[in-house]
From TrEMBL:
<keyword id="KW-0503">Monooxygenase</keyword>
<dbReference type="InterPro" id="IPR001128">
    <property type="entry name" value="Cyt_P450"/>
</dbReference>
<protein>
    <submittedName>
        <fullName>Cytochrome P450 71A1-like</fullName>
    </submittedName>
</protein>
<keyword id="KW-0349">Heme</keyword>
<keyword id="KW-0560">Oxidoreductase</keyword>
<dbReference type="InterPro" id="IPR036396">
    <property type="entry name" value="Cyt_P450_sf"/>
</dbReference>
<comment type="similarity">
    <text>Belongs to the cytochrome P450 family.</text>
</comment>
<keyword id="KW-0408">Iron</keyword>
<dbReference type="InterPro" id="IPR017972">
    <property type="entry name" value="Cyt_P450_CS"/>
</dbReference>
<dbReference type="InterPro" id="IPR002401">
    <property type="entry name" value="Cyt_P450_E_grp-I"/>
</dbReference>
<dbReference type="Pfam" id="PF00067">
    <property type="entry name" value="p450"/>
</dbReference>
<keyword id="KW-0479">Metal-binding</keyword>
Length: 281
């Protein structure tokens, strides 16, 4: 297996997956688990992804002029669906937050995206850097609805004291990421979805500032951070660029069901169907 370019093939597939081919995300995600020590069967699986890629290179998603209802979405919550590991919670939460917030935020983000992208068909990664409002929305979503509200359980190596509480070694500990994100000592109106607070904010999201740690902190912090942000930002930017979003007829902002399911991740208990109008059709 030494001569097989396993890692570089996965890396090329990941590039395609983030930019134009989200449909291979699950397969690539599984194949990437074996980067450090791939076997023959893993390489065979990768070759199947390449074959699939070749066979579908001329296919693309088509949106017709009818009334489009979006009721399925994707991100990186592989833990939420025990049967087939379909991934849902991140975009659900984005939808919840955005639809509950004043419409001005949505309009502002759309104006920013449409202004920056011009006449192109899709928003790509290069455009994202100019989109401060979009980034603020994503960041505020991770504060208010962290995908892993209690992070990942960890075991302490030694006795330690935190805020006067003695924690013995070998204890299983959880970090309350959800609680930190809503701590009134650090956040004004902590329960409100206010992306404006993230514009020009110096609070770090990668583990330096503990009031915002959706990806954990320290040596065992989430290594998927950059991939997740690229996928979520590019995905949301394209949804806002091409579609206008409304609440379903008769539903008001306060009717949106924000109940979540219990578990490692925090997916919505009930779907949020949103009518979408393709503005470029
Ligand atoms: C919305 C998406 C995601 C969120 C919110 C998230 C969040 C987290 C959190 C909170 C941890 C625990 C960090 C800690 O204990 O300090 C973690 C660990 C981890 N994440 Fe993610 N993650 C996401 C997606 C991903 C993706 C896409 C990958 C892989 C490409 C990934 C790979 C990992 C790995 C391997 C660990 C364990 C790291 C270790 O124990 O050393 N994550 N993640």
């Amino acid at each position: 297996m030494k001569k097989i370019p396993y890692a570089s093939t996965i890396s090329s597939l990941m590039y395609a997956m983030v930019c134009t081919r989200p449909n291979i995300a699950h397969a690539v995600g599984i194949a990437s688990r074996y980067l450090s020590n791939p076997g023959k069967e893993h390489w065979n699986a990768v070759k199947w992804i390449l074959r699939y890629f070749k066979g579908t290179s001329r296919l693309c998603l088509c949106f017709d002029n009818g009334k489009t209802m979006l009721d399925g979405y994707t991100d990186a919550d592989m833990a939420g669906d025990l049967d087939n590991r379909k991934s849902t919670s991140g975009y659900d939460n984005l939808g919840n937050g955005l639809m509950k917030s004043p419409k001005a935020i949505l309009k502002k983000a759309q104006a920013e995206i449409r202004g920056a992208v011009g006449n192109k068909d899709i928003v790509n990664e290069d455009d994202i850097q100019k989109l401060s409002c979009l980034k603020a929305i994503v960041r505020e979503t991770f504060r208010l609805y962290p995908s892993a509200p209690l992070s990942v359980p960890r075991q302490t190596l030694a006795n330690c004291i935190i805020n006067g509480h003695e924690i013995q070694s070998n204890s299983i500990v959880y970090t309350n990421v959800w609680g930190n994100g809503r701590d009134p000592e650090y956040w004004e109106n902590p329960n409100e979805f206010l992306p404006e607070r993230c514009l020009n904010s110096s609070v770090d999201m990668k583990g330096k500032d503990f009031q915002l740690i959706p990806f954990g902190a320290g040596r065992r912090g989430c290594p998927g951070y950059s991939l997740v942000l690229a996928m979520v930002e590019v995905g949301l930017a394209n949804l806002l660029y091409s579609f206008d979003w409304e609440l379903p007829f008769g539903i008001k902002k306060d009717d949106i069901d924000t109940q979540v399911l219990l578990g490692l991740t925090m997916p919505n208990k009930n779907d949020l169907p949103l009518p979408a109008k393709n503005v470029y059709a």
